[in-house]
């Protein structure tokens, strides 16, 4: 396509939303009218599916659940007055609580105010809060947020070391919808230990966001924690940023959550329109379908040209991959669907993997995220008439052009600036695009059976560990791995047993390995 035709295509496909100051450019995706015609019936069905979902249909058949994250920013759309009231009440409760924390009305036993916030959660109970904190937290927030989002002991230590002198004024927020996920449970216990070591009363400084009646909810009530906030059954982890999961930590950091909700609501209204060219989420979903042949054949590279959006790709990784990465479609056919997502930020990544994007294996498409406003205030000139922001903007355009010339397709999302309004809108845009794409490829975008399989396997390993340690202690003499496996009637698990004892030996856990470490078969294992 020559420059004039491309310019024509750009204008023909450019989506612009005046209220949001938002643009979407899919002109560098090479779909044609034929493709559009073929996809139209699927798209019509997707529009119907999402209308039913928003009206309260069971959209997650496996778990027999409604899918209601869209109601969070527009409670009038909730399918019952009780649900509507619940959303309104939670939002008000968050605001009242935050106001009391900021004013010092609620304060820790040994300090006049809470200064820091320690958020413990994983997956959807961490990624949204982390992304939003990075994007929107003010430079000098009323409370500084820290995260424990894993069960890595060294990671936990690092966070607790940073908080060492501030634990007495740290508010701990444990987030877990199920209230039974091991990683946040472990983090919570480690933090409780740290509080106890300093003679601090954990319960007086702890709050929980969790499903009503969950194990965590019961623990928080029985131990007399400061408060609990509900996570609704019909909100999935990866779409929970606009529930108490995301709103509470955001508000505690001084982020304007009402504006974030308004931005999301505005985008929801735009992406509810059942017409391709008027609906940016449909344009995204269609582009993903086109470029990946409806099978996720191309990876989605997310390149925001703005440091504060660094975590957007990580956030989207869960939203897209946990929603769409499915073995079976809704009819039970094996389909192995999904779209791989990765990325960091431009122009930084131009000095890392963009070389391969331009010249190497063409297994991806790029989504550029462009932010029009460079910074608050004026920019100095770096070269005559040229600022740092001009460079950033030029690099984005240059990379987009260079990729297109080499037959690499791209989408460009443009927002006027990074603020609560536009971040709310971006989150809503991708939530809806995933919903639509899920319909296009006919998968249940709201369950995660694969993750459950991994959790179950991990629990089996921990169970095996207990048996292995018991046996080694009982025997009281060095044993070969094969002997341990036979005695436990677990010959299939010999590799797992080896890895268990190797890990224990590396951590001063009372187990020793003897022999050639490079030849597991020759090793004997004993107590140390
Ligand atoms: O909030 P929870 O229940 O602790 O779950 C955390 C995350 O774990 C998952 O269930 C996957 O294991 C995610 O979907 C979820 O966001």
UniProtKB/TrEMBL annotation:
* SUPFAM superfamilies in the cross-refs: SIS domain
PANTHER family associated with the record: GLUCOSE-6-PHOSPHATE ISOMERASE (PTHR11469)
Q: Which residues form the active site?
A: 322 (proton donor), 351, 455
Keyword annotations:
Cytoplasm, Gluconeogenesis, Glycolysis, Isomerase
Q: Which species is the source of this protein?
A: Floridaenema evergladense BLCC-F167
Which of the seven top EC classes does this enzyme belong to?
Answer: isomerase
Q: Which family does it belong to?
A: Belongs to the GPI family.
Molecular function per GO: glucose-6-phosphate isomerase activity
Which Pfam families does this chain map to? PGI (PF00342)
Pathway stated in the Swiss-Prot or TrEMBL entry: Carbohydrate degradation; glycolysis; D-glyceraldehyde 3-phosphate and glycerone phosphate from D-glucose: step 2/4; Carbohydrate biosynthesis; gluconeogenesis
Catalysed conversion reaction? alpha-D-glucose 6-phosphate = beta-D-fructose 6-phosphate
* Its job: Catalyzes the reversible isomerization of glucose-6-phosphate to fructose-6-phosphate.
Quote the protein name from its UniProt record.
Answer: Glucose-6-phosphate isomerase
Question: Mind telling me which CDD domains this protein's record contains?
Answer: SIS_PGI_1 (cd05015), SIS_PGI_2 (cd05016)
Please state the Enzyme Commission number of this protein: 5.3.1.9
Q: Which InterPro entries match?
A: G6P_Isomerase, Phosphoglucose_isomerase_CS, SIS_dom_sf, SIS_PGI_1, SIS_PGI_2
């Amino acid at each position: 396509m020559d420059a004039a035709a491309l310019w024509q295509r750009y204008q023909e496909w450019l989506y612009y939303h005046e209220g949001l100051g938002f643009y979407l450019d899919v002109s560098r995706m090479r779909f044609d009218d034929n493709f559009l015609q073929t996809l139209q019936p699927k798209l019509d069905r997707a529009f119907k599916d999402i209308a039913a979902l928003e009206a309260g249909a069971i959209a997650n058949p496996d778990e027999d659940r409604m899918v209601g994250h869209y109601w969070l920013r527009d409670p009038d759309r909730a399918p019952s007055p009780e649900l509507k009231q619940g959303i309104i009440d939670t939002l008000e409760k968050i605001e009242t609580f935050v106001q009391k924390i900021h004013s010092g009305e609620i304060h820790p036993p040994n300090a006049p105010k809470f200064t820091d916030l320690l958020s413990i959660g994983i997956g959807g109970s961490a990624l949204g809060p982390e992304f939003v904190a990075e994007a929107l937290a003010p430079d000098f927030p009323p409370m500084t947020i820290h995260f424990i989002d894993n069960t890595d002991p060294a990671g936990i230590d690092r966070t607790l070391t940073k908080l060492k002198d501030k634990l007495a004024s740290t508010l701990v927020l444990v987030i877990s919808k199920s209230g039974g996920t091991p990683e946040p449970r472990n983090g919570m216990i480690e933090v409780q230990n740290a509080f106890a070591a300093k003679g601090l009363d954990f319960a007086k400084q702890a709050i929980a966001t969790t499903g009503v009646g969950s194990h965590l909810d019961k623990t928080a009530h029985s131990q007399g924690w400061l408060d609990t906030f509900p996570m609704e059954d019909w909100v999935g982890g990866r779409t929970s940023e606009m529930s108490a999961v995301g709103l509470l930590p955001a508000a505690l950091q001084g982020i304007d959550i009402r504006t974030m909700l308004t931005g999301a609501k505005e985008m929801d209204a735009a992406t509810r329109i059942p017409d391709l060219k008027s609906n940016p989420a449909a344009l995204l979903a269609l582009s993903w379908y086109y470029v990946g042949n409806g099978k996720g054949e191309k990876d989605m590279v997310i390149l925001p040209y703005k440091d504060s959006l660094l975590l957007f790709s990580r956030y989207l990784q869960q939203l897209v991959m946990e929603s769409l990465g499915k073995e079976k479609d809704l009819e039970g056919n094996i389909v192995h669907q999904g779209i791989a997502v990765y990325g960091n930020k431009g122009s930084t990544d131009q000095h890392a993997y963009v070389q391969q994007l331009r010249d190497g294996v063409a297994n991806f498409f790029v989504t550029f995220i462009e932010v029009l406003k460079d910074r608050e205030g004026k920019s100095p000139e770096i070269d005559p008439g040229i600022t740092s922001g001009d460079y950033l903007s030029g690099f984005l355009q240059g990379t987009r052009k260079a990729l297109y010339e080499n037959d690499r397709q791209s989408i460009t999302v443009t927002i006027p600036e990074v603020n609560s309004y536009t971040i709310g809108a971006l989150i809503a845009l991708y939530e809806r695009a995933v919903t639509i794409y899920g319909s296009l490829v006919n998968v249940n975008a709201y369950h995660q059976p694969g993750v459950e399989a991994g959790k179950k396997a991990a629990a089996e390993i921990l169970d095996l560990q207990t048996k292995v340690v018991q046996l080694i202690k009982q025997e009281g003499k060095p044993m070969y791995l094969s002997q341990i496996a036979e005695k436990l009637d677990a010959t299939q698990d010999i590799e797992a047993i080896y890895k268990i004892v190797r890990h224990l030996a590396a951590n001063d856990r009372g187990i020793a390995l003897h022999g050639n470490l490079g030849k597991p078969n020759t090793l004997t294992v004993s107590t140390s």
